[in-house]
Amino acid sequence: MPDLTVISSKSPLKQIMQAVRAVEAGEYTPELLSELGGDSGDLGQLARMLDSMARGVSFRDNQLRLLRKVIPIGVSLAAEKDFNRLLETLVVEAQHVTSADAGTLYLVEDNALKFVILRNTSLNLAMGGTSGNEISFYPVKLYNADGSENRANVASQAALTHKRITIADAYQADGFDFSGTKAFDNTTKYRSKSFLTIPLENKDQKVIGVLQLINAKDPKTGEIIPFADDDVLEALVLLATAALDGYILEASLRQEIAQLKIVIDETRRARQVAEITDSVYFRELKDKATQMRKREPRDKP
After folding, report:
1. pLDDT at 8 over 50
2. What are φ and ψ of residue 231, in 5° steps?
3. How far apart are CA 211 and CA 113, in angstroms?
4. Which of 93, 156, 230, 278 could form a disulfide bond with 150, CB atoms 3.0-4.6 angstroms apart?
5. Torsion sign across C-alpha atoms 139, 141, 146, 152
6. What is the pTM of this model?
7. Where are the alpha helices (H) located in 80-208, listed in sequence order?
8. Mean pLDDT of the 9-37 span
9. What is the pLDDT of residues 263-283, one digit of tens each?
10. Residue 197 CB burial class (10 angstroms; 0-12, 13-18, ≥19)
11. What is the largest CA-CA distance in the chain?
């Protein structure tokens, strides 16, 4: 048996061993065996078999991850009756899933994106939700004064296009105005770098809000890294949007019922007044009052 310590880091056997260790650690990627994919020999066949098995293990682990993390979150979101806590939970859980240092949630209101939740772990900053701290930032307008779409802001761009936007470094991004972000950073001595901006669509494909996550962190090094695609986040967004949309619809229905009740009450009062004024007794009282006014002596000059 060859001494494995002297095997080149580029040798097929070494690559297979590294792939096996990656599978055990849950860190396997197909790139680990990409160089052996076209090998027609025994090691090439072994590499292809290992890759197939590793992909299956990764898929199974991902499904388990979805079941263990997202389903309980989805149940809690669906059961939440406090609107502020519902919004807050969406941001906090999205931060947790993506290892994001900060998160912001906007809701669409009057053709603008209104800040409703703002969280920043490094700055120990919490606004909106159950924090009791009001958000002082102005809403992000979806349309400019001339009626054109506001494509300069990344959040409004995501809402207008219905597309999520991933930015590795806001300070080097072209096409967007990050002057507000830079001003915030300058004031707080923070450094906003990687962004993931996700439009939240209801069942009718209407954007009802925007979730923005900032500064994804490498779990091992703490280094700020770009946001990556994540099935758990995808499922979380779908569940959270459904819960949010359901709450908004329920609130709208309650408001409509309240307004309908007001209309019914006003109609009932109007009918009652009409019934009184049309009664014989009321007409007799009205006639007596008229006669009494006629009998009153006129003021002398």
Report:
1. no
2. -65, -35
3. 11
4. 156
5. positive
6. 0.63
7. 83-98, 154-161, 179-188
8. 70
9. 566 666 666 666 666 666 656
10. buried
11. 135
Q: Are 199 and 210 in contact (CB under 8 A)?
A: yes
Q: How far is CA 17 from CA 5, 147, 296, in A?
A: 12, 60, 115
In angstroms, the CA 146 to CA 257 distance is 37
Q: Out of 104-113, 156-165, 208-217, 242-251, which region has the weakest mean confidence (pLDDT)?
A: 242-251
Other residues' Cβ atoms within 10 Å of the Cβ of residue 247:
18
Cα 104 from Cα 126, distance rounded (Å): 10
CA separation, residue 45 to residues 48, 64, 115, 193 (Å): 5, 29, 55, 43
Q: What is the pLDDT of residue 234?
A: 80
Question: Which of left, alpha, beta for 88 (phi over 0: left; psi -120 to 50: alpha)?
Answer: alpha
DSSP state at residue 135: P
Average pLDDT over residues 19-24: 70
What domains, with CATH codes, occur in the chain? Answer: 4-62 (no CATH), 99-252 (3.30.450.40)
Give first-to-last CA distance, the chain, whole Å: 135
